[in-house]
Amino acid sequence: MKMRLLALAHFKEGESRAKIAQFLKVSRTSVNKWVSIYLNEGFEGLKEKPRTGRPAYLSAAQQKQLAQFINEKGASDEGGRLIGADIHAYIKKEFDKTYHTDSIYYLLKKMGFSWVTSRSRHPRQGKEVQDIFKKFHTKTITKIPGHVPVERVDIWLQDEARFGQQNTTTRLWAPTGSRPRAVKQQQFEYAYLFGSVCINNGASEAMVVPFVNKNIMEQHLLQISEATKDGRHAVVIMDGAGWHTDGIDIGFNNVTIIKLPPYSPELNPIEQVWGWMRQHHLSNRTFKGYENIVDEVCHAWNSFVSDSQRVINMCTRDWMNLNT
């Protein structure tokens, strides 16, 4: 289409068709055809026409059945994974169709499937409980003080992560076919990062400490309380860790905690922040000791929260909207 429009632009400027073909390094026949179509049908005639091609081996209903089979196997607790040969065998058995092995992957891509790394989940995790939790608007109203309208509620996400010399390795660019080696320390120095982010305005609070307990959690809630503007109320989503006791927010008149369902860390998007920090700053490296760990963790956290829009985009989920 770009070549056709360029040819027309030259044509409108008065260039001959032979010269246009020479400029664009195409045949004069093509230029004659494009100009003729434009004069008779306008720009619409130049657009690419749908191509029929060879009909798909599998009908829409068969593709739907195959997609259901793949989804069910992917969600099964029995373990294992489907590979191209398994899908090839299923298509042969169920539909008596034979695909070339390479065509299986093309078919899957066309059906909207990708080969991706799965996320872990606890075997006791309950989807129904998670769905109830996602009715976040109602849960928030029942938790916050009665005089606080939802329009004045800020949603904070809170969690802790441990960083230290028993560090993680991550992917890096390297020549194709090679497998680079990355350093991994064997010492045991580490520090804990208490971190919180607000999805309403991208604000954040954090502290790095050598251990975890209820007193430190209360100090962290104090940070959130002081960061919450007058007239607004902070709802803090957190997991059920032992130092996240139910009454830990009693001493704050502008902070309310809401606990995640058991075995559901994926409902707290701040978990992604730890991965971002490791990927961009903390993986594939060594630390001299505790003080060095604290400095580098602070640097990684400050790097992440320096862009408030990044904080909001990474940590916001549709079900957190209190205005619906």
Mean of pLDDT:
88
* CATH topology value of the largest domain: Nucleotidyltransferase, domain 5
Q: In angstroms, what is the radius of gyration?
A: 29 Å
CATH architecture assignment name of the largest domain: 2-Layer Sandwich
Q: Termini distance? A: 44 Å
CATH top level label of the largest domain: Alpha Beta
Low-confidence stretches: none
Secondary structure tally: strands? 5
Order of helices and strands: HHHHHHHHEEEHEEHHH
- Fraction of residues in β-strands: 5-15%
Discrete helix count = 12
Structural class comes to alpha/beta
Q: What is the overall shape?
A: extended
Walk me through the structure:
With 324 residues, the protein is an alpha/beta fold. Helices cover 42% and strands 12% of the residues. It folds into 3 domains: 2-46; 60-110, no CATH class; 128-169 and 183-320, Ribonuclease H-like superfamily/Ribonuclease H (Nucleotidyltransferase, domain 5, 2-Layer Sandwich), CATH 3.30.420. The protein has 12 helices and 5 strands. The protein has a 5-stranded mixed sheet with strand order 3-2-1-4-5, sandwiched between helices. Strand 2 and strand 3 form a beta hairpin. Helix 10 (271-282) packs across helix 11 (290-305). The longest helix is centred in the first third of the chain and has 16 residues, at 60-75. The two termini are 44 Å apart. The model has no long low-confidence stretch (mean pLDDT 88).
